[in-house]
Structures are given as C-alpha cells and as structure tokens.
Amino acid sequence: MDKLRVLNEYFGHREFRSGQEELIDHIIDGGDVLGIMPTGAGKSLCYQVPAIMLNGVTIVISPLISLMKDQVSALVTAGVSAACINSSLLPEEYYEVMHRACRGEYKLIYVAPERLGTQEMERLVSSIKIAMVTIDEAHCVSQWGQDFRPSYLHIAEFIRSLPQRPIVSAFTATATDTVKEDIVRLLGLHEPFSLVTGFDRHNLYFSVLKPKNKYAELKKQLDGFGDKCGIVYCISRKSVEEICDKLNADGYSATRYHAGLADAERRANQEDFIYDRKRIMVATNAFGMGIDKSNVSFVIHYNMPKNIESYYQEAGRAGRDGSPAQCILLYGPMDVRTNNFMIEKSREENDDLSDEEKEIMLERDKQRLKDMTIYSTTTGCLREFMLRYFGDKAQSYCGNCSNCVNGFEDVDITVDSQKIVSCVFRIKQKGRYFGKSMVIDVLRGSENDRLISLGFDKLSTYGIMKDVPVQTIRAEIDYLASNGYLCCTDDEYPVIELTPLSAKILKERIPVQMKLPKKTPRSKRLTDEQISVNDLLFMKLKSLRSKLASEAKVPAYVVFSDAALRDMCRLLPVTHDEFLNVSGVGKRKAEQYSDEFCRLISAHLSSHPDKKKYD
Ligand code: ADP
Ligand code: MG
Question: Which segments constitute the Helicase ATP-binding domain (predicted)?
Fold first, then answer.
C-alpha cells in the first residue's frame, strides 16, 4: 500500500502536512531520520505511516505511559494492530501482549525506555524482525533539554544489540543545536536525514496581558471561553492548589496536577481532564509531555515561565487539531524574581554537575529568562519574536497576536525621559545606585521609610511624576534601558546606571518616542473559522461522540477530533462515501461510525430544511 493510501485509509487525512512526506520517504528508503517539528505538527504520523508499510515490527520508545496508552488506543481505533509494554500492565495483560508480540501480531509496539534491557525484551527482539526503532520525544536523551531521562541513554546500546540494525528514526520539538547534536550522537543515528519544519503554528493566537489582578483576569478569560477546555499553568505547586481551589469555589469545573500529588490522584485528575469530565486543568509544568489531547482551546500561563522553549512547548498544547486556539500569558514583574530564585535554587540542588558546568548552566538559564522577559514586555509582534528566537524567518506583523491586534501608538516620552534620567543622575550624586523600584518611588513622591531615611525626598526630582502610573514609568525605564539610554544591571540586586547616551537625553534633549499600547484597545480576536459551522449540529455531534467514546472507554478525541466534527458540520455527509471525505475519517473509522453519524446528520437536516451544504 502506498503512503497516501495509508494516510487516507487508516488516518483519514487527505494530504501530508509540511515535512511529513519527506521524512516518510527517507524512512521507506531505509535511512535514519531526525524530525524536528513543533508540538502539534504531526510527528506521530511520520513514523506510524512507514511502520504500517515496512516489512517487520516498529518499536516506539516513548517516555510516558499516558502518552503510549493514548497513541495505542488511537491506532487500534484506526485499525492498526499496536500494543504497549510498560509497568501499567497487569501480569496477565503483560503475558498476553508479550505472547502476541512474539508471534508478530503487532505492527507497532510502544515500549518505555526502562524496559529495554529486560530479558523478555531480549526474547522478543530475537523472535521477530524489527524493521524500525523510533524514539519519540528524543530530546529526553540530552542533559541540555528540559526533560532529561537517564534511561534514554541506554537506547543506543539496545539498538546495537539487535541481530540486524533497523532503521532508526527520532522525533522532537526541541531545536537547539546542542540538543540536536546530542540526539544524533547519543542515539547513534547513522547520517540521519534531518528535517526542521517551520515553528509557526498559524492557528494559535498569542497574547500577553499585564493585569493588576491576575485572578480576576483569569476568570474573565475563562468566562470568554464558554465550555471550551484548556490548561492554566502556574509556577509552583502552592499556587496550583490555591488557584484550583478558588476556581472550584467560584463554580468552575477545574482539576489540578503537580508532582507533589500522589500518583493515583495525578492519574485520576489527568483522566478527568482528558475525558472532558473537567474543563480546566490547573497545573505546574509537570503536566503535559504525555498530553496529546487535541481539543485544548486555550493555554493560560498564570505566571511567566522560565524560558521561551518551555513557553512555546506548553502553549503549543493548545489547538493541536488545527482549530483556532489561544495562548495567553499573564505577566507580572514578580514573575522575574520568582524565576530567578528558582534558577538559583536548582543550581544548588543539582549535584550531578561540576562547579564549572553549574556556572555555565546558570549563565544560560539567566540568559533564557531574560529572553522570556523581553517576550513578555515587547511591544512588537509576539509571533515574530518567538519565531526569530527559534531561528525562523518572520514578518514584523502577524495580525494574530495581542500586540498586532490591539494596535500600538507612538507616544512622545521626551519629557518623561528627561525626568527619569535626571532622577537616576540625582540619586547617583548621592553616591549610590538603586534599582527600578527606588527610582520610581522617588519620581512618584513615595513616603516610604527607606526613601525618607536616605533623604531622597529632598531631591529635586522627588514627586515630579506623581500623576504617572507606575506601570507607565516602568515601561518607560525598560524602553530607555533597552535602547541604551540607561543601563539595567542583572546581578543579584539589579541597579539602574547612566550610560554615555544618557547625556543625549539630559543635555541635547533629543526627542524620544516609544510604542505604548493604546488606552482603549480594540479587543478584536481571531474570528473562529467556525462562523459557518452550525453550532447546534456541532453540539449534537459532540454528544454522540461522548456516548461512543464512553462506550469504548477511550477519550472523546480518540473517536474524532473537534476538527473532524467541524468538518462534518461543513460537509454534512449523509452517506458512507460522503463520510469518508471528512478530514480525520479513514476506512476503519467510517466502517465503525458512519452509520450513526450520518443518521444524526440526516435527522438534523430534515428538522432544519433550510440548512444547505457549505462549500
Ligand atoms: P506532535 O507529536 O508533532 O506534537 P501529533 O502527531 O500528536 O503531533 O499530531 C497532532 C495532530 O495533528 C493530531 O490530532 C493529528 O491527527 C493531526 N495530524 C497529523 N498529521 C495530519 C495531516 N496530514 N492532516 C491532518 N491532520 C493531521
Ligand atoms: Mg508527539
């Protein structure tokens, strides 16, 4: 069977996405590959399609049990014989799976890396032909990635121990050069064909908000999403607990996830979210790597994460099925300090590294945090910033992020700049340097004890910006610093210093303009592509899907993704053949589901005779 037919018959997709076809072709030709594609790009198909086509079995090494379970049930529903081998199996299940595996009944076997060295595995690989070994989430092999797993280091050895070297394919969403080199070297890939697809995710709307009251803003955002589901990421276990409790008390359907919970509760909560029993998952960054839930409509970060890699990966869990989704970051300046604190702490806790390595890691982490802070405060296009960070080309206006959409205006801050720089100058005359907060306090005429005891209330700049909001002064200082008119050090106690350019502001009185958000932003959001979709029918399809999913004991999205249901609303199929045209419907799924779905759609059409088919 050729690859397009496999794509169509098993997975129900009409065409390959960018990058998929090339990777598949190289695998079929017998070469090793390394696929680097962002979360949601469709890496699984890149090895599942060839696995079906190759003569022999494909072993997929995957880091998380939940991830394997979902992938295997999705494959089985699509009519592909697959199984997983991990510690979650009961002894009888394990025996049964092994028995069938040894008889070569599966095309794909998902294995946890810890299992590779076991005797049963040795027996298995000596009794069947292994055509390919696939390593999913391959960055786990690198200490420089965010999710290092020591057991990944044994994969190369496992591959070497096989009677015949199979094709090796590796996939990850992490693109930095160090991680890439580690993957090739530590997994022992042979001159792999590497492919990095663009990092852009067109369907994601990015926004950064700087609310005074984060919790109130969170509720406002959640209300705006109706009954759609999503993830709220918090920086610590404690804040996960707090936010989740508050949301529940306020009547939201929320559950929680962090590494401090007992295994059983973590698993139960995760399932509540995946099976749509709870709408909101409040979690630390411990939640996510195994989550392939495709209908996550929003990812809200209650705190700024520690770097852009983490942010893009976490935010990228929204909209995996290609539907419009939102990634919202609630930024507060305290987030910078908390992250700095956590970076320092993790250095102390990391005993595996030499002092020199620790210093390098620390430097790197601080630089990454700085980049994340710049993202959170930039006035430019957010998508452009991120794509450039990952080395992609990008336009300076994407039209689908909060900065582009809300529009910015040029504001003349010449006079404010003079006041600010002169305040730093006056403080310096007292023989001291201070941080942003002190400069702002002096400018706004604060009466705090420290300020008074230092005699700063006697400075000529005391209180000269009384009427300007703190946020504005802060933004202006940041702007002056990022343009070299001031300098903001980044040691333990960051202070603001003058630079050679400061004189241009004070003496030459050069005009300074900066982009500030308009006072009343046009709050326009990306219009859902669902406009043409019949909401009522969508609801009916959803409830049919839930019924079928719960009968089959699988998550709803394993039956059909939201995108597939939306396509049904668009195409309104009423026959088996028409049903096959729906994106996400393959031969097997059509056989299984076309009757019930077509019946529902015909019934809907006859009770709404005015509904025509959409093009
Ligand atoms: P990744 O592992 O890269 O994060 P997945 O493999 O989980 O992404 O795929 C994400 C989503 O994209 C899935 O819902 C999958 O069905 C969908 N998808 C993958 N390839 C295609 C394709 N060629 N056409 C349509 N949808 C696709
Ligand atoms: Mg994946």
Answer: 24-193
